[in-house]
Amino acid sequence: MPSLDARLEAVLGLVHAHSHADIGSDHASLPIELIHRGQIVRGVIVELNSGPLLLARQNVRRAGLQDRIDVRAGDGFSPLAPGEVQSASLSGMGAQTMLGILDRAGETLPPALILQPNDSPRRVRVWALAHGYHLSAERLAEGHWTYPVLRLEQRGGPDPAYAGLPLDAALRYGPHLLGSGDPLARRQVWADIVRLSKVAAPGRPAEGDLAVAQAALSWLNR
Ligand SMILES: C[S@@+](CC[C@H](N)C(=O)[O-])C[C@H]1O[C@@H](n2cnc3c(N)ncnc32)[C@H](O)[C@@H]1O
Question: Which end of the chain has the lower number of beta carbons within 10 A, N or C?
Fold first, then answer.
């Protein structure tokens, strides 16, 4: 049975669906473990590159799950039919790659997304606000970096997660993480204040980033 690191455990913890797609799965550890733990009934893996595609096929076969996990070659959501899965995960990628995949998905985009960008979670939160997805849960996982993991759900109206929070700080650090006073989020805010205080000067981008970190700290200490 494959064991997951803290990053993929955090992703796994936010998945619950009958059918789930893992886009850019590589080793296939996540969907295999989701089936083993009974969190999904059926999985679809999509891989763009031949090496990871082969590895995913091998690992699914070794786990004896060929009848439960379908491994498909392709770009993002293109090998999926609209409505085929209730949720999808994208993990271990830069935000730019991830948002490109989401923007190309069109009608195949499922109503729930579990996203773990390696950088710029702010860009993912901004994308969610602009595309009718609410942020229903967030986690931070420790590893090589501190990894953000977001669960998004398609819903109408303004996202209540941001109500009453300073918007720029919530987009940067996460409304749920700030709201709950998450210790890793608090650590990130402090690290940013220490780092940015050394380089911030009037008119430089770091000045704005420092103001956002200070707004987050004021919120956490309110
Ligand atoms: C760094 S790996 C992450 C693997 C796994 N998701 C994880 O979190 O450990 C990124 C994977 O995404 C795949 N990938 C990148 N762009 C893709 C796309 N447009 N469609 C499908 N897979 C893609 C790559 O081939 C690679 O296997």
Answer: C
The verdict on the CB of residue 179 being under 6 Å from ligand 1 is: no
Residue nearest to atom 27 of ligand 1 (CA): 26
pLDDT per 10-residue tile (average), the chain, 222 residues: 86 98 98 98 98 98 98 98 98 98 98 97 98 98 95 97 97 97 97 93 88 97 92
Q: Whose C-alpha lies nearest to ligand 1, atom 24?
A: 24
Residue 141 φ then ψ, to 5°: -120, 135
